[in-house]
Amino acid sequence: MMARIKITIAYDGRNYAGWQIQPNHMTVQQRLCEALYKITKVESRVIGSGRTDTGVHAQGQVAHFDASDNLQMNIYNWVPAFNTALPLDIRVLKAEEVSDEFHAQFGAKLKTYEYRINISSILSPFLVGRVWNEPRQLDKKIFQEALNIFVGEHDFAAFAANRGLGSEPLSTVREITQVEFIDEGEDIYVRMTGRGFLYKMVRLIIGGCMKVSSGRYYLEDLQQLLDHPEVGGTKSPLCAPADGLTLKSVEYE
Amino acid sequence: MMARIKITIAYDGRNYAGWQIQPNHMTVQQRLCEALYKITKVESRVIGSGRTDTGVHAQGQVAHFDASDNLQMNIYNWVPAFNTALPLDIRVLKAEEVSDEFHAQFGAKLKTYEYRINISSILSPFLVGRVWNEPRQLDKKIFQEALNIFVGEHDFAAFAANRGLGSEPLSTVREITQVEFIDEGEDIYVRMTGRGFLYKMVRLIIGGCMKVSSGRYYLEDLQQLLDHPEVGGTKSPLCAPADGLTLKSVEYE
Questions:
Q1: Could you tell me which of A69, A199, A207 has the C-alpha nearest to residue A146?
Q2: How large is the ipTM?
Q3: Domain B109-252 falls in which CATH fold?
Q4: Which residue, A113, A186, B74, B238, has most beta carbons within 10 Å?
């Protein structure tokens, strides 16, 4: 018999080439698989809710794996066992036994990302790799106005990077259910919740809003990209750096 | 003619073997001297208010150096010039022209250190190297009580590490003018202001308070160490790790 375990994970993305296992680069998924092997002495796959890119952080990434009942591991022991086996920049926050039906990727209903912009003229040494430092004057009102056009169901083709040949998604229509703009003076937090995001979608939206709010692009043109995306056509004028992006939470039914 | 420049510096201490230049290890002072050389093409010494140890951070370290008038450098250009030449984990926050009488070390009147303790059972990956994570139960009231005994002028010999033969300070009497205990739930910030601190003094005080507040040492014994330090005698029962320590500010007359 197998038990399916759901884990919630936080990580500092600065030292990793993203979530997904790949040759020649250290990734978060690989670290988790290595930790799981140390605990169980069995090779098993840890399946995440989705990829995060190089340098992107997480406060609530979700993954699952199957563990043999023979382990006789109490559910309360998974968190300390993982955290002893993992490096300090990856932490398992929670472990729950779930039904065999649960799937971290296919079952994900809503994801919330947070993007942090810092506008101070001198970036704190403690925020390197954690924020997008843009010391230029940006109009916060216009940023919010630009951000709000993305709420709802749209064809986000102009706000998606190509992953390369053969890996194009079938549809570029997605729904953003909520955006939040939190103004803390020199720090701006943008939260975006949706039923799924295309590759680099959050960063291309944030980049577009930044261009508009600093007077380097017209809001009407951004709206045009959203309303009339052409296949292989114009893309968002800017992709915000990975540094400021954090996967906050993933919700399941 | 020379102009004396006072700079205020912030740094993330994680990547440095402390402030002071030394062979075979990268230090903050060395980075600043290198940056100054890049700017002026002249070897000059950057003199700090005092050392900070390996892994200790700063938000308001102060230093000075002398620059030739021939440079014709506008005072407003020093900050961007330094920050272009420095790595991102060291930032010059401010540059001011001061009189020849100013000396960053000998003129320092008050220093404020902040020590951050985090008591959560799972340390956030974003706080690694930035706090002392002590998930054990600590009694905040007793911690404050222990902390308060240090205010005033005392012989802190039991709260000073030896720097090695020949480098002992003449006197181990120091004055702590103020302590502050800021309780933010899982984060505790302790601020300590004084006219000067002995080697590892803040960390030995914090370590002692931690021992007392977690019931592993008597407050009376800590008081005893403060009231009756013996030369070469008993030391504070614990030295808190460098991670949690930040030099907040240095004040001059």
A1: A207
A2: 0.91
A3: Alpha-Beta Plaits (3.30.70)
A4: A113
